[in-house]
Amino acid sequence: MNYRISPSILSADFARLGEEVSNVIAAGADLIHFDVMDNHYVPNLTFGPMICEAIKPYSSVPMDVHLMVEPVDDLIQSFAQAGANIITFHPEASRHVDRSLGLIKAQNCQAGLVLNPATPLHVLDYVLDKIDMVLLMSVNPGFGGQSFIPNTLDKIRALRLKLDEYEQLSGRRIAIEVDGGIKVNNIAQVAAAGADTFVAGSAIFSQSDYKAVIDAMRVELAK
Ligand code: DX5
Ligand code: ZN
After folding, report:
1. Complex ipTM, two decimals?
2. Has 64 been annotated as catalytic?
3. Cα(90)–Cα(41) distance, rounded to whole angstroms?
4. Residue of minimum CA distance from atom 6 in ligand 1
5. What band does 3 get if pLDDT is binned at 50, 70 and 90?
6. Which residue of 20, 55, 113, 212 has the smallest Cβ count within 10 Å?
7. pLDDT score, position 211
8. 117 lines ligand 1 (CB under 6 A)
């Protein structure tokens, strides 16, 4: 299995963001996760496309942009132009989910839907053909450093079954990313449930040695 670790810069030092991104890529990050919050869809405020654009020269790996904004559509082109490779959004924040996915694809980005802990999997029905990745939230969105919600493991297993069925019919494999409370001591369980892409913010950026954390996660994933 080709596992990917996507460090969330939400927990990085914003005064030294370019350096932080270079360092975490040197430490083994496969993607860089950008948490975009608007103080409307979620009760917190982070950054817009200007930051992605500023970080682009430091990011030799794909930029994984998680939009926690409402509405969604107006920002898609700006983030794509700022260098986003993957853009995901929350379906309840878009009035026309199929259209928003189409706008992302039209920018030649990979597209994904983000499901909150209480959002059922059936929101994915009828749009799987437009999705490259499903992002399952294992905390409620808005803040880094929260604890992993254990029910997510059942949800990952159910989603893996659903996506395996779809892969058999279509030949397309859709990735499962999990976001929130991922640590060295639970990443193996999350992978065993069927996830392949792991967001980690506080687990990585709270430590001084990013490589040690990412290496420890890979050891767990290899078990
Ligand atoms: C929460 C964000 C997450 C968060 C993860 O809304 O989507 O990406 O930063 O942070 P940790 O790994 O600290 O839970
Ligand atoms: Zn996120």
Report:
1. 0.98
2. no
3. 9
4. 141
5. very high
6. 212
7. 98
8. no
* 179 annotated ligand binder: yes
At 77 the pLDDT is 98
Record the tokens describing residue 176, joined without a space.
């499962």
The values of phi and psi at residue 184, to 5°, are: -60, -35
215 in catalytic set: no
Q: What are phi and psi of 122, to 5 degrees?
A: -70, -10
**Could you tell me if 82 and 105 are in contact, meaning their C-beta atoms sit under 8 angstroms apart?**
no
Greatest alpha-carbon pair distance for the chain in Å reads 48
Domains, in order of start, for the chain: 4-222 (3.20.20.70)
Question: SS3 for 171?
Answer: coil
Sort strands 32-37 and 110-115 into parallel, antiparallel or unpaired. unpaired
Q: Is the pLDDT of residue 1 over 90?
A: no
Which residue has tokens 């030799």? 60
Q: In what order do the strands lie in the sheet with 32-37?
A: 4-7, 197-200, 175-179, 133-137, 110-115, 86-89, 63-68, 32-37
Q: Return the bridge partners of 34, or none.
A: 65
| Percent of the chain whose pLDDT exceeds 70 | 100
Tens digit of pLDDT for each residue in 108-149? 999 999 999 999 999 999 999 999 999 999 999 999 999 999
